[in-house]
Fold this protein.
Amino acid sequence: MRAPTAERSPRPCAVSVTLPHRDAGSAARGLLAELRRRVSAGGEVADWDTLVLHGPRPSSDARGHVWFEYTAVVGCRPVPQS
């Protein structure tokens, strides 16, 4: 018997952070911590092999300050029911 499609196909879980400086290490640690929290709170498990980090993507605010956006995406599935 095959598992329902929702259990077979991961859905993307994504989080972003914007920092006032270019710091990929701090961004990655913060993004991973937030992904773990969200995935766990949502009753899901992450497929960490699918993790993709994007950034930095620079942008400027109205005052001309440069900010750096980082995003992390990982595939998530519902926790298997026993």
